[in-house]
Amino acid sequence: AQSVTQLGSHVSVSEGALVLLRCNYSSSVPPYLFWYVQYPNQGLQLLLKYTSAATLVKGINGFEAEFKKSETSFHLTKPSAHMSDAAEYFCAVSPRLNSGYSTLTFGKGTMLLVSP
Amino acid sequence: NAGVTQTPKFRVLKTGQSMTLLCAQDMNHEYMYWYRQDPGMGLRLIHYSVGEGTTAKGEVPDGYNVSRLKKQNFLLGLESAAPSQTSVYFCATHLTGTGGAETQYFGPGTRLLVL
Predict the structure, then answer these.
(1) B25-45 pLDDT, tens per residue?
(2) How much of chain B exceeds pLDDT 90, in percent?
């Protein structure tokens, strides 16, 4: 079964500092990987996803993530944190299939706290 | 275009009561999902549907039932609520199956408290 591990249930940064949220996956075959964000009292929305050969994926709001097969990682970064980035971030994995669909498996989430 | 809506937004139940959560979407999506979110647990899949009239079990289906009588609606039922079902419930949808790369679109959630 596919799984993802998010290191750190809470990450605190100062406004303007680098944001790094860690995600490692377990799969014998490189899966599809996603980052979703959840702002307070809202549903989740997609930040970015890795589905093709391009290992550096750019998403919304200045976030990006790099797929590293050798490290089985898909860490999320942003060069400079804004107060509006405070939210919970979820890494998710889906196996690659030739067709059809697959269900997502989510990590436990990382709460990003941004201080002025 | 409302996207994915959930009804109700918040509900308090007593143990043993029943209720139905409604997820409605106006995007003509085939696939619909029900998740529960608990602190420190992430999202866990309860049931899902790959089209009108079809349903399947997810990771944590016990104590829940679902129905997809119309393409745009996915109902989640609790026949006899238990305190362990206190959670935030999210519905999600996507259009087609493309081998696992689909983006899911989430509703705003339903907060359920079972006393």
Answers:
(1) 999 999 999 999 999 899 999
(2) 89
A97 interfaces chain B, CB cutoff of 8 Å: yes
Q: Is B50 on the interface with A (CB under 8 A)?
A: yes
Are B92 and A44 inside 8 Å of each other by CB?
A: yes
Any chain A CB within 8 A of the CB of B5? no
Residue A110 is which amino acid?
A: T
Q: Which residues contact B8 (CB under 8 A, 6 or more apart)?
A: B21, B110
Query: How far apart are alpha carbons B18 and B43 in whole angstroms?
Result: 23
A70 has a pLDDT exceeding 80 = yes
Contact residues, chain A, for B108 at CB < 8 Å = 41-43
Dist CA A104 CA A90 (whole Å): 11
